[in-house]
Amino acid sequence: MDENDNVLDEAQKDAEQAENSRALYEVKMKYLGRTGRITALLKKMKELAQEDRPAFGKKVNDLRMLLEARFAVLEEIIRQKELEHKLESERIDVTMPGKRKREGVLHPVTRVKNELIDVFAGMGFEIYEGPEIESEYYNFTALNTPADHPARDMQDTFYVTDEFLLRTQTSAAQIRVMEKKKPPIKILSPGRVFRSDDDATHSPMFHQMEGLVVDKGITLCDLQGMLDEFARSVFSDSSKTRLRPSYFPFTEPSVEVDVSCASCGGKGCSLCKGTGWIEVLGAGMVNRHVLENCGVDPDEYTGFAFGMGIERIAMLKYGINNIKLLTENDVRFLEQFKD
Amino acid sequence: MLAPLSWLKDYVDIDISAEELQEKLFSCGFEVEELTYLGKDVNGVVVGKITKCEKHPDADRLTVCTVDCGAHGVKQICTAATNVFEGALVPCALDGATVLHEGGVQKIKTGKLRGVLSEGMFCSGEELGINNDFYDGTEVYGILILGSEAKVGDDIRKIVGIDDYIFDIAVTANRPDCQSILGMAREVAAVLHKPLKMPALEYHAAKTDVKIPVTVKEPALCPRYIGHYVKDVKIGVAPQWMRRRLALCGLRSVSDIVDITNFVLLEMGQPMHAFDRNFLRGGEVIVRRAKEGEKIVTLDKKEFKLNPSNLLICDKQGGVALAGVMGGLNSEIKPDTKEVFFEAAKFARDSVRKTSRSLGQRSDSSARFEKGVDAYTPELAMDRALHLVEELGCGVPTSYRTDVNSADMTPKQIVTTYAKINALLGIEVPEAEVNAILTRLGFAVKENKDTLTVTVPLWREDVDGYPDIAEEVIRSYGYEHIVPAFLSKATVTHGGLTHAQKLELKFKNTLKAEGFMEACNYSFGSPKDFDLLRLPEYSPERNAVEIRNPIGEDLSVMRTTLAATMLQNIVRNVRRGNDSGRLFEVANVYLADTLPLKTLPEERKKCVMGLWGEGDFFDMKGAVEAVAEAFELNFIFERAERSYLHSGKTAAVKLGEKTVGYLGELHPAIANELALEKPAYLCELDYAAISKKFAKDITYKNLPKFPAVRRDLAVVVGEDVTCAELTACILRACKAVTRAELFDVYRSVTLGAGKKSMAFRLTFTPDEKAEKPLTPEAVDGFFRKILGNLEHNLGAELR
Questions:
Q1: Nearest CA of chain A to the CA of B782: how many Å?
Q2: What percent of chain B lies above the pLDDT cut of 90?
């Protein structure tokens, strides 16, 4: 049975030549396949005498089992090798940048506007947006600013016709709301406003946010309480407000509202020009004539109103030094306002 | 409003520092925008007496002086000035001093001039920042030679009138009464709890027979006109103290009579005018509207053509002054003027403003009238002017005065209660405090049981109700007394964004998620924008609302499309080296029914998107599809044309039959015009239209019981068959196919020219009510049906 030993040796040699699992499989088939050497040996059994056949059969069978065991070992070795090779060959440069979908941004004015809306919506304010081209009546006359009133000179107005103009203040929305809705009223009105000013701190178009509360027993104390809450929400937990006398035709008394400088905490710095305070908005108790103009009885109801420039708040919050940046739409500017 | 501290001190005993006064004024409503110490740049300059003048040993043009500087010692100073002499009193800038020099500040040091020690410098008026109006003899060539009143060793600032502060005060529009030194002094007196010392008003009236009758034909435009006759006028130069005050407030000295009118304007806030009586033809004054085309030449020699909206002060023959704006050249005060007719009037502010604006002629007087002058002050001002005439000795006030007064001079009374005042403020101000505050501000207070009757001073035309009284109280009492509360008595209301406002925010966030950055542009643009966009002449976008008084032509029409400003944004970004980007803006366009506007225009919300650099048409379309997905909109995209877009790369966005937008590549000709090297893409959406179709809210749909089956289908079609046609044909073929997504387009020589292969991934979903999953046989059947339809309808072949 020399041939058996030869088969084993040859198989061993062939298998050692195999470099991958495919080649090894082919070698395996050469010996163990349907047309392989083992099958060939078994065919020879016919040529043997009847009595020799069982022994020969057992010997071939043992040989097959031995071969199968050897192949199993070799296969495992090759698999390991191949896996290692695969891992090695699939190496990547993990320091390359990740793949991302680039998110856009909301405009800083929209961001601040949304933040302000969140603050006041929580206090029960509804949001109302009025028209941007307004009649002179809503923008001035109904707001206690008749035609020869010097306050009309406080703002440089863009006129479209004798009657229509680009609204100079979101206060115009106060009248529209009060004409339709009876107290209690809590309204916030954001939007674009226009003034013919154009320099480093003034833009011919900017955004304002007007607030209006009309109810029974509303006082100046309520105004300051609400503005304190606003300052804490928008600037910092320790922010405070300060009221000082001012003048708007549609409020009486009128106040200018300063917020303690968040940058220095009120000690005085370059941002607040050493005063510790930053002028943020105008406010006051709604003028009786304005209430009357809207059919609200000023002896029954009182109210307060406040108006702020959204750009101004955004510039203070983010340290933006030129209002023009807000309408240039330079992507290098905008992308800094990612969420 | 400029107010020198020294002038305020004439009327109030101010015993606090300028800085402390600034604080006090701020707290009661007068912001001092700038507080300037006049002598801030002149330090260490003292009065010296030259005791010896000798020639410099090595320089002919230099003189070596020995100067006695009193407590500062005896100094040696070399000078090139030629007007020095022994015994002269001069300003000496000693070692370490600062003086003004050519617009800056110069530091003086001890040094040697041609080998001789010089321990300082003599100063000219210019180096001290003064002129003749501050100190007579200043405007000489050389060194300022001081008068004998100067004491050796004294600080020069006190002597030449620059030891003073100027308050630049922001006066709110409701307080025209404070546009004067006296008005501010009233506030200062109140805030310091000090009495107000009124300026001297008395004068002696000489008898006269002269009459200058005044007729006011327009009492509405001229509620009060006071005229007064001054005789024996000798025109000269106003005294130092008066000229200095005018100079401090930025006015130049003209002559004593004219200076008096300007002085009273500053002091009382009442514009005045002085006519040469001999040039009032017919010896009378008529206040009337100008006739159409009537002309006047004003003091500054400008001629104006007038119309009846201009109020004119006339004599018998014609205009002698443009009321409230400027006097006429024909009746101006000249060096030989012998008789003067003073005018102190109240002209309606609107009338003065209109005249001043329409003629483009402004003056200190018109500026003052535009803020509002009360009817009470003219009389005060006239008395003051006459007092000054007498004090200066430049004329003799007479007894002739005419006062045409149609104004109501009854003081206003406001009847209110302490309770009402406190209810508005939300705090309890003690009654005695209320009374004291109001009294200090010149109000008369009368109590009767609960009611409070407040008489308003005549100069406070702004006060007309109890809230004004409440404001007077709180600004004096102090806003720091307000105790923040939180709507203690108010009704609880429900707030927040409306549904539409929430959806707009979601819309913006959808575009943001697609990589777009939100832009914000002005609502107005240039009429040339329409040409840039190649909009046809008949295009409705050209009917833009125009601004009458724009900042410039570039910002003169209200936007009817957002495309132009977006295009400018792209151009600006590219020019700044921002090679790629995505921007969007949601804003109103303004659509007029008729022009000029008869009613408010429609403000229609639109969205514009811009994309440049990285990305192409389909990136833009993908963002629009993201919007469709977010709001469950069934957008249909059809080939279309738009004037500013590439005709082969433009799609209309439709909802049903209605076009709601366009997207496409910027027209190459426009890109070329704007020097854009790479293609840019634009999309305009009619936000107002699409937002109406936004899905109301999320409604849950049941999941299918059995999984969907996916199959790929590749067909070869002619080049002009579109993806939309194929997709529609597939989806129409059977109900079970719920999605057909293109995933590959392939062209090759084997396929042949004019042919393309398009591969779709089909999704078959079992009916919701189906009892069993889709069998492969059933799917085969669907597949055959789809293929059959494609072959039949679009000439497709299976690849």
A1: 37
A2: 86
